[in-house]
Amino acid sequence: MSRFINLEFGGEAEDQSQGEPRGSARDEHHYAHEAQAAFERGDFEKALRNYGKVLEFAPHTAAAWTAQVRMLIELGELRDANAWAD
């Protein structure tokens, strides 16, 4: 089953960082930071979702596009990674 349908969707509870007050600024910088932190923890699924959120705010961010491909590779989704890379 393709992972594309899940890239930009996450539960509301997943999007809220622990200890973060409600209503704080959530922009591409916030999600890029969250994605990097998830990557460093080895939570590639969450990193993938957060890089998708970065692209919702700033679709021309090359680093987020390439990071999504890397997360797909880390998850063993080589076919999807190849499709995104193309």
Explain how this protein is built:
- With 86 residues, this protein is mainly α.
- The chain has helices at 12-15, 28-41, 44-57, 62-74, 78-85.
Major beta-sheet overview: none
Provide the structure class.
Answer: mainly alpha
Average predicted local confidence, pLDDT: 82
Assign an overall shape: flat
Write down the oligomeric state: single chain
Strand content: under 5%
Number of helices: 5
Evaluate the radius of gyration. Answer: 12 Å
User: How much helix, percentage-wise, in residues?
Assistant: 55-70%
Order of helices and strands: HHHHH
Low-confidence stretches: 9-17
According to DSSP, the number of beta strands is: 0
What is the straight-line distance between the termini?
19 Å
What is the gist of this entry?
This protein is mainly alpha-helical and 86 residues long. It has five helices and no strands.
